[in-house]
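Late entry, written up from scratch paper. The run itself happened at the end of the previous shift, but nothing got recorded in the book at the time, so transcribing now.
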Amino acid sequence: MRIKLTIQQLKKSQMIPINYQYPLSVFIYKTIESADPEHADWLHKNGFSNGNKKFKLFTFSKLSIPEFRIIGNKIILESGRLHLIISMLIENTIESFMVGIFTNQKFRIFDTITAADFVIKFVEIVPEPEFTETMKFHTLSPIVLTKKIDNNGYKFLNPEDDEYPVYLRNNLLEKYRAYCATRNIREQEYKIEEIKILSKPKQKLFKIKEGTPEENDIKAHYYDFEMKGSPKLMKFGYEAGFGKDCSLGFGCVKAIEN
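Output as recorded:
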């Protein structure tokens, strides 16, 4: 399921942190919790597991802000309205319910210095594309992938690395297996045959929980890519996100028409 939020500022020309992903992720959790506390608590603590790895199967785009200025590490919002895409792996039967719980919600984007208040004016369901054996995607929020290098360390991968497509494929399959295991769904033999990077990657650095003891740096990339394989996995990646840390606002994509 995918929804588009039309968001209204409650005050003019508010300021938000340039690293706004974590506050938005918290808002999504709290909105789900307001409707189903038990499910939200389980999602926050556990998600879907595959071995020692945990996955939370939703993602969201970067904020679409028609007019803005950047001063230091802050964004000055010159537009009254903003837009956000939220994509999640849920049953079709509760789509209307999810639209209802987000509509008219008020929330705050903040850090240790600034805070800005908003209300969701409209929520609409985004029609999904037709999923085929060959799909092209464009990132609405950048993709994160890492490679373990020792017992406690890892490095961020670049889409231009030769091994990058393998890690992108394996991450998608791990999440799919976790979903099947948790939902007691019989896992079928779906395959990803090929992944091609179609555009020059654009790297961006993020700080999660900036200014706190838990601050964490993330390196992510915007790019277009082509994937060949099972349509079921194309749809799964489209809804749950590609790569790591999707629930923090990474790995959200849209389909590119051929």
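The mean pLDDT is 88.
(Scratch paper discarded after transcription.)
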